[in-house]
UniProtKB/TrEMBL annotation, chain A:
Signal peptide: none annotated. Keywords: ATP-binding, Nucleotide-binding, Transport. SUPFAM superfamilies: MOP-like, P-loop containing nucleoside triphosphate hydrolases. PROSITE patterns: ABC_TRANSPORTER_1 (PS00211), ABC_TRANSPORTER_2 (PS50893). SMART domains: AAA. This is Putative spermidine/putrescine transport system ATP-binding protein. Residues 340-361 are annotated as: Disordered. It comes from the Bacteria. The lineage of its organism: Bacteria, Bacillati, Actinomycetota, Actinomycetes, Micrococcales. GO terms for molecular function: ATP binding; ATP hydrolysis activity; transmembrane transporter activity. PANTHER family: SPERMIDINE/PUTRESCINE IMPORT ATP-BINDING PROTEIN POTA, SPERMIDINE_PUTRESCINE IMPORT ATP-BINDING PROTEIN POTA.
TrEMBL record, chain B:
Keywords: Cell membrane, Membrane, Transmembrane, Transmembrane helix, Transport. Residues 104-304 form the ABC transmembrane type-1 domain. This is Putative spermidine/putrescine transport system permease protein. Pfam families: BPD_transp_1. It is a multi-pass membrane protein. Belongs to the binding-protein-dependent transport system permease family. CysTW subfamily. The chain crosses the membrane at residues 45-73, 108-128, 140-160, 184-209, 230-251, 285-305. One of its GO terms (cellular component) is plasma membrane. Residues 1-13 have a biased composition (Polar residues). It comes from Salinibacterium xinjiangense. Residues 1-20 are annotated as: Disordered. It is found in: Cell membrane. One of its GO terms (biological process) is transmembrane transport. The lineage of its organism: Bacteria, Bacillati, Actinomycetota, Actinomycetes, Micrococcales. It comes from the Bacteria.
Automatic annotation (TrEMBL), chain C:
Pfam families: SBP_bac_8. InterPro entries: SBP (IPR006059), Sperm_putr-bd (IPR001188). This is Putative spermidine/putrescine transport system substrate-binding protein. SUPFAM superfamilies: Periplasmic binding protein-like II. It comes from Salinibacterium xinjiangense.
């Protein structure tokens, strides 16, 4: 993991704001991204993360605030004069050009001779293992292949930073996991800053050095994946990054004996039949049992009035569909309870979302 | 593409005995036919297309054949009756006559000029409509482009006649800047035809630009191309089929026009006038048909040339 | 000429133009689908002996403005009176060009046609019209004698119809620009005309006759006796004259509204015209003259179809339209001189004078449109004359 504090700043956003009519898509964002960092911007759709990326690339002009790239203020500089390149969500490959010409495009407009640029483009295609597809048209490629062509096209011009706008969003799960690994390897070998926009929290957690969680045009929380997962600051982050049971003020008072908003991860809750348990306990009734393979998700209606989600790993306590309606006791350690800031805005993601659900979007 | 007709299933007991089962659709003749068709995609296609194809065949092919056949007949010039004696005289006259060669060259020249003028004007307008204007302005502009089509062709041609006339609008507005009105003649014909066919050129180019995703323009810019490089390397090649489609309109419509040149063309005549004269004044259908074959042949040559560039592949 | 009159003319004129457009549409369909009908039936060559009881209806093919029943303009109606008098219900169809009329008449659906001289002989030759027994038409007596039994309405001494209206293809000029006032066609035919580029001419093969009229005076050695009877040498001379003229012509006109506008804007300052056009020019700086060489003109003829299904009503119509009242209404509405001597009493004050009606000297200078045919109209038998199709080819050649 890269320590962002010890490296020079690659990208700096100050008080960046972008309004579309009355709506502030980006609302006063301050951010510093280090050279060589794999940085993710995570958030639901409409949270402003893609707009920030487009402001960095230069496709949009900010309403106010500045964008600096490698120490230079580029707020008013056109995209073609910025040292960053973009991998688009729809790949944006030129349909009338061959794969090779697509990759060589950036070199062509820089005035490189045909022979040199084709040689470079072939090398780049080689790196993404598409050398055999150089003469095809983009329409003759699969989604994953197009994705890799887009990567090759954006990196062949040797940008100082690469911007990726949900590049894996259109691919199926298996391919996505495979390309995540390739992306990480590519970033490591190029050694340049990657700014990765995604709504998939697991993808962000897997790849990133740091993550900024966006909500309503603002950064809700900025931190390493572990910080975000283990110490979410708000109900929004707690429920958007991973799954959390959120206890509001009243429930907290009833269950924990103190006021405030609290979050508790489903895998930190134990479930026993009867009432023998350690730590904090709460009795309830099983409402639903969902078999997930590696573990089982159990929804429990606590007597205190809250429905909680419990993740029981495979092999410990076995619950099945027949246990619906059974009386159980939920238990957890107080140390696993995270105290959150009171919600300023209601979480946009429902708290009962599991990683599986999020991934299958 | 095959689907089976639902069959009555009696092996499994109904899960909700209290409710009546929904009966399987009864197997009617129509149902059998549609089942058969759904299994035979080619037959389905043939049935679907036969009516329009028959119509196309009748209207276009038969009409073209009739034209060709008529061109091979002669007419009794005084009684105006067509005599069905086969002769190549008309076609030979049209191919070898210096009059027809001159007029053909003039007509093709006008059609090419009109097409070039229209494309040059249509490209920036269509680009502004498709890529710059807000959705609201876009709708307004589309209507504005279509609006001239609501007015009669004759009204527009006469409007240009009045604009270009002595002491007309042109003399009033443009002449002070040192550009004299071209008066009536071929330049006026090119101007008027360009105006008349402009919507037919803007609309396909606009539609073609709409199909170019914004992300492609952004990608080009992102990769370092300035606006003109992007237009030349990305937009124009992708627009080629649309430009060709537009040019087919302006070119073929110009080839066949005879009214505009009559109104603003001064003493000039185009192929259409020769056809009109021979049908209308001379009542010589066979010769008119022979002349009418000229633009048809030119269009075939043009389409074949366009096809070689591959522009029709993406239409 | 009052404004009301000219606006009515506009209505009839635009109707005529759209009819011409429709004709083009019809013609193009004809081009596409024609499989060539070769009926060629020779019609009856004998005229009727008596007018029997009316059949109750009659169908008429005519120029726009010739058969008005009030549906275009409620104040313009001379058909209703006919229907009430005779019990013959009138259905009419208008045409835009003589050639359209010619092909429509071939359908045999029309009992009566109003044909100009460039169609009438063709209709006779094709057997589409029958001789007319003028004894059965009392109003025939009132027709000017100089219009009767002319080459465009009679063949071999047999009358083929009743003259309707007539007019001249005059020389119009812009009085501000053209000075001194011309008395000769020189101003349009002379290669060194000071008005080069602003000359206009009628856009039709029949305009060759205008050149022939000019040549009759200026090159008498060509021996042209009748401008519609040109042998090949004479035609070549006329074509040469017209080719030379083309360099000076600003534009040709066939749509008369186009010429009105061109004279109003000053794009044209001198050229051939109809009286009605000069009447319609609103700028007031034009004049017309019948040049010393004479001029061409037209005289329309009411004819009866050889396959007429309602011959009695057809005779009734011919008699009615030749009456002073109806003749006055129809010719005034169209803008030409009437054929009936008494018609002027029923026309607007001064309108007959505007069209030189009944002026025999004026009429004698006119060469009425006739269809040029191989058999020379001037009676020559030692040569064959050029026919209309040759004139058409020549006209295309002249325009280049």
């Amino acid at each position: 993991m890269i320590d962002h504090t010890s490296r020079p700043v690659a990208i700096e956003l100050s008080a960046l704001t972008k309004r579309f009519g009355d709506m502030a898509a980006v609302d006063g964002v301050d951010l510093q991204i280090a050279e060589g960092e794999f940085f993710s911007m995570l958030g639901p759709s409409g949270s402003g993360k893609t707009t920030v990326l487009r402001l960095i690339a230069g496709f949009e002009q900010p309403t106010s605030g500045t964008v600096s790239l490698f120490g230079r203020d580029v707020t008013t500089v056109a995209p073609f004069d910025r040292d960053v390149n973009t991998v688009f969500q729809d790949y944006a490959l030129f349909p009338h050009m061959s794969v090779l010409d697509n990759v060589a495009y950036g070199l062509r407009v820089r005035g490189m001779s045909r022979i040199t640029r084709h040689a470079r483009a072939r090398e780049a295609l080689d790196r993404v293992r598409l050398a055999d597809f150089a003469d095809r048209k983009p329409t003759q490629l699969s989604g994953g292949q197009r994705q890799r062509v887009a990567l090759a096209r954006a990196t062949v011009v040797e940008p100082k930073a690469l911007l990726l706008d949900e590049p894996l969003g259109a691919l199926d799960l298996k391919l996505r996991e495979q390309l995540q690994v390739e992306l990480k390897e590519l970033q490591r070998s190029l050694g340049i800053t990657f700014i990765f926009v995604t709504h998939d929290q697991e993808e962000a957690l897997t790849l990133s050095d740091r993550i900024a969680v966006f909500n309503n045009g603002r950064i809700e929380q900025l931190g390493t994946p572990a910080e975000l997962y283990e110490r979410p600051v708000s109900p929004f982050v707690a429920s958007f990054v991973g799954t959390s049971n959120i206890f509001d003020d009243a429930v907290s008072l009833a269950l924990l004996g103190r006021r405030g908003t609290h979050s508790l991860r489903p895998e930190r809750i134990g479930l026993t039949v009867g009432d023998t348990a350690d730590g904090i306990t709460a009795p309830g009734t099983i409402a639903e049992v969902i078999y997930l393979g590696t573990n089982t998700r159990i929804l429990v209606d606590l007597d205190a009035g809250q429905r909680i989600t419990v993740l029981a790993p495979y092999g410990r306590e076995r619950f099945s569909d027949h246990d619906r309606g059974a009386r159980v006791t939920a238990s957890w350690r107080d140390a696993d309870v995270i105290s959150l800031q009171s919600p300023t805005t209601p979480p946009t993601a429902p708290s009962e979302k599991t990683p599986i659900e999020m991934r299958s979007r | 593409m095959t689907s089976k007709a639902p069959e009555a299933d009696t092996s499994t007991p109904p899960t909700h005995p209290a409710r009546d089962r929904v009966a399987a659709p009864s197997i009617t003749l129509a149902r059998r036919a549609s089942t058969y068709l759904s299994r035979h995609a080619r037959l389905r296609l043939a049935v679907l297309l036969s009516a329009p194809l028959l119509w196309l065949g009748l209207v276009y092919v038969a009409a073209l054949a009739a034209l060709l056949i008529t061109a091979l007949w002669t007419v009794d010039s005084f009684t105006g009756q067509i005599s069905q004696t086969w002769t190549l005289d008309n076609i030979v006259a049209v191919v070898t006559g210096s009059l027809y060669q001159t007029v053909t060259l003039r007509t093709v020249g006008v059609a090419i000029l009109v097409t070039i003028v229209d494309i040059v004007i249509a490209l920036p307008i269509a680009f502004f409509m498709a890529k710059v204007a807000s959705p609201r302005l876009q709708r307004i502009l589309v209507i504005a482009v279509l609006m001239p089509l609501w007015a009669s062709y004759l009204v527009k041609a006469y409007a240009w006649r009045s604009v270009l006339s002595q002491d007309g609008l042109w003399d009033f507005v443009v002449a002070p800047f040192g550009i004299e009105s071209p008066g009536y003649g071929l330049p006026a014909t090119v101007i008027t035809l360009s105006y008349l066919w402009l919507p037919y050129v803007i609309l396909p180019i606009y539609a073609g630009l709409e199909r170019v995703p914004d992300s492609l323009l952004e990608a080009s810019s992102d990769l370092g191309a300035r606006t003109w490089r992007t237009l030349g390397l990305v937009v124009l090649p992708m627009l080629w089929p649309a430009i060709i489609a537009g040019s087919i309109f302006s070119f073929s419509l110009s080839l066949g026009d005879y009214i505009t040149v009559n109104i603003v063309g001064g003493t000039n005549q185009l192929l259409g006038n020769l056809v009109y004269t021979n049908v209308g004044a001379a009542n010589n259908l066979p010769l008119a048909a022979s002349i009418a074959l000229i633009p048809i042949v030119i269009m075939f040559v043009y389409l074949a040339a366009v096809r070689r560039t591959g522009a029709l592949n993406n239409l | 000429m009052n404004l009301n009159y000219s606006s009515r003319r506009m209505t009839a004129g635009s109707a005529r133009r759209s009819a011409a457009l429709a004709a083009v549409a019809v013609a193009s369909i004809a081009v596409l689908t024609a499989c060539g009908t070769t009926s060629g039936s020779a019609g009856p060559t004998t005229a009727a002996d008596e007018v029997g009881a009316g059949e109750g209806q009659v169908s008429i093919l005519a120029w726009p403005g010739y058969v008005e029943d009030g549906s275009n303009d409620p104040t313009v109606d001379w058909v209703t009176a006919f229907e009430e008098d005779t019990g013959c219900e009138v259905t009419s169809k208008t045409y835009g060009t003589s050639d359209e009329a010619f092909s429509l008449m071939k359908t045999g659906e029309y009992d009566v046609i109003a044909a100009s001289g460039d169609a009438s002989l063709r209709l006779v030759a094709a057997g589409d019209v029958a001789p007319v027994n003028t004894d059965l038409i009392p109003n025939y007596d009132g027709i000017y004698d100089f219009l009767k039994m002319q080459s465009w309405n009679s063949v071999d001494g047999k009358s083929y119809g009743i003259p309707h209206g007539y007019g001249a293809n005059l020389l119009m000029y812009n009085t501000d620009v053209v000075s001194p006032a011309p008395t000769s066609w020189d101003v349009v035919f002379d290669k060194s005309s000071p008005y080069a580029g602003k000359i206009t001419a009628y856009d039709s093969p029949i305009y060759i006759a205008d050149a022939a009229v000019y040549l009759m005076t200026h090159q008498p050695e060509l021996g042209i006796e009748n401008p519609y009877a040109l042998d090949e040498t004479q035609l070549a001379a006329a074509v040469d004259l017209l080719k030379g003229q083309r360099a000076n012509v600003g534009e040709y006109w066939s749509d008369y509204l186009k010429e009105i506008q061109a004279f109003e804007t000053g794009d044209s300052v001198v050229g051939t015209t109809w009286q009605v056009i000069q009447n319609s020019v609103t700028t007031g700086n034009t004049a017309v003259v019948l040049p010393d060489e004479g001029a061409t003109g037209w005289s329309d003829t009411w004819m009866i179809g050889s396959e007429a299904k309602n011959p009695n009503c057809a005779y009734e119509w011919l008699n009615y339209i030749a009456s002073p009242e109806a003749n006055a209404q129809a010719t005034e509405y169209f803008g030409e001189a009437p054929s009936n001597e008494a018609a002027c009493e029923f026309r607007t004050e001064g309108s007959c004078e505007a069209f030189n009606a009944g002026d025999e000297e004026f009429a004698s200078k006119l060469w009425y449109w006739s269809t040029p045919i191989e058999k020379c109209l001037d009676g020559r038998t030692d040569v064959t004359c050029t026919d209309y199709s040759q004139w058409t080819a020549a006209w295309s050649e002249i325009k280049g």
